[in-house]
Design brief:
With 461 residues, this protein is of the alpha+beta class. The protein contains 12 helices and 19 strands. It has 3 domains: 191 residues, Up-down Bundle (Multidrug efflux transporter AcrB transmembrane fold); 86 residues, Alpha-Beta Plaits (2-Layer Sandwich), CATH 3.30.70; 120 residues, Gyrase A, domain 2 (2-Layer Sandwich). Helices cover 50% and strands 21% of the residues. Strands 9-10-8-18 form a 4-stranded antiparallel β-sheet. Strands 12-11-15-16 form a 4-stranded antiparallel β-sheet, with helices on one face.
Length: 461
């Protein structure tokens, strides 16, 4: 009864994993005998292998995204990488770590508001230098990304004194140079959002701002004393708009209209919402990683995975016969389950962002899954040689192998946990995929393989 329940549970899990991993077919049909056969029109999966060209185009008639696409990291998808150097010269030594973390959080908020998925924002210390690493998968415009994360975005409202016009006329200096701070800054903002005006001079993208209660009170007093006068809006020390105050504005709401595009208005609203950086930032490295590099990495990873799984499957069948074939079936189920977890996170955690190091962790876990099966089969063979019946040899072999499998996998999980806690983003990707693979491999070896073997006539008595 338990075996049947376990078998049907495995069948259900496998079907769900197949549905999650089910790819969608590319629209590349070729009519052959009334049937639609799909082939790639460009040979982009021909890879050099030991002096020969290995054609893997048979892997490409399908689009591997499907309904639950695998999220790719910067090294596979391409994008932008930035290394930011913070200037801590004016910060007390005891407060520098806190200032670095505050700067990281501000930049992370900006990136999240911008909508970049699977981004990485992390801080690091190199001697006395404190840096922030930003990885933005899928972002091709590195200059726009640099402006987004590196600008201070200090918003100020300045009023122009009555004597400014005469002084500007006498000195020839622009009148805005005499604008005086009012004390109303971006720190008084509650939120900023992009809006679109109607027709006329105020048409096009605008930035709508809403102040906090204290900011609204300040804004009301400022507009009250400047009715009929210009009120300059400065961003990072440069004027972006000089509207004329038509009346006292109550309620703490206003519009910033200027020479905005939809993109620049969005970036300004993001910078205002995220706040100003607590320390000056300098971009010391700005690198765009093209999709071609990512595609090459994916192709080589596919090749490595294909060769590894095929070699292991052939070895298992050649050495263990029917048992090896069943182990290969369990290995296929294992691979489907792991990929389904990568794609969905079991709907409990965010899906796994797959990097090149993460693929290495997955391939390594495949070998560990097979290792557990080999250990179990060798124990079973020992029990059979001692004269035990098939059923008793199966159960005893699995029980004796379980302690070794448990200890080795727990050791791997401890190592993966340490790597994930203290490693960088690349190391974390390796550790996460390895840990998931190890956990599923324990399920595969003890539950899947064992249940399948119990269905064989030899192990029923």
């Amino acid at each position: 009864m338990k075996s049947r329940f376990a078998l049907w549970s495995i069948v259900v899990f496998t079907l769900v994993a197949i549905i999650v991993n089910l790819p969608s077919v590319n629209n590349l049909p070729n009519q052959v005998g009334g049937l639609n056969l799909r082939f790639l029109k460009n040979n982009n999966l021909i890879i050099p292998f030991f002096g020969r060209n290995l054609d893997l185009n048979f892997l490409s008639p399908v689009n591997l995204t499907g309904k639950f696409p695998i999220k790719l990291g910067l090294d596979l998808q391409g994008g932008t990488e930035l290394i930011l150097q913070t200037d801590m010269s004016k910060i007390n030594a005891a407060d520098r770590d806190n200032a670095l973390e505050s700067a990281r959080q501000v930049i992370e908020r900006r990136v999240n508001l911008y909508g970049v998925s699977e981004s990485v924002v992390q801080s690091s210390k190199l001697g006395e230098q404190r840096r922030i690493l930003v990885e933005l998968p899928g972002v091709k415009d590195s200059s726009s990304a640099a402006n987004l994360v590196g600008k201070t975005a200090l918003l100020e409202f300045r009023e122009i004194p009555a004597s400014a016009a005469a002084e500007a006329s006498k000195s020839g200096i622009p009148i805005l140079a005499f604008a005086q701070p009012t004390g109303l800054t971006g720190a008084d903002l509650k939120k900023a959002s992009v809006t679109f005006g109607g027709s006329g001079a105020k048409s096009g993208p605008q930035v709508s701002i809403e102040f906090t209660d204290i900011g609204a009170q300040k804004f009301g007093e400022i507009t009250k004393r400047n009715v009929g006068k210009p009120l300059a809006i400065f961003l990072d020390g440069s004027p972006i708009e000089v509207p004329i105050v038509e009346s006292e504005i109550l309620g703490g709401r206003a519009q910033i209209s200027g020479n905005f595009t939809a993109q620049t208005a969005k970036e300004l609203s993001i910078q205002l919402n995220a706040g100003a950086l607590p320390v000056p930032i300098e971009i010391i490295k700005q690198q765009s990683i093209g999709a071609a590099l990512g595609n090459e990495s994916v192709q080589k990873s596919l090749l490595a995975g294909f060769i590894g799984i095929t070699t292991v499957a052939i070895f298992m069948v050649a050495y263990y016969g029917i048992y090896g074939l069943l182990a290969d079936l369990a290995l296929i189920i294992y691979s489907l389950l792991v990929l389904a977890i990568f794609r969905t996170g079991l709907f409990l955690i965010p899906p796994v962002t797959l990097t090149l190091a993460g693929i290495a962790g997955f391939i390594l876990s495949i070998g560990m899954a097979v290792d557990a099966n080999i250990l179990t089969f060798e124990r079973m063979k020992e029990e059979l040689r001692s004269g035990k019946t098939g059923k008793l040899a199966l159960e005893t072999g699995f029980n004796r192998a379980w302690t070794s499998i448990r200890d080795s996998n727990v050791s791997s999980l401890i190592t993966a946990t340490i790597l994930y806690m203290f490693g960088t983003s690349v190391v974390k990707g390796f550790a996460l995929t390895l840990a998931i693979g190890v956990l599923v491999s324990m399920f595969s070896a003890i539950v899947v393989t064992r249940t399948i073997l119990r269905m064989l006539p030899r192990f029923k008595r």
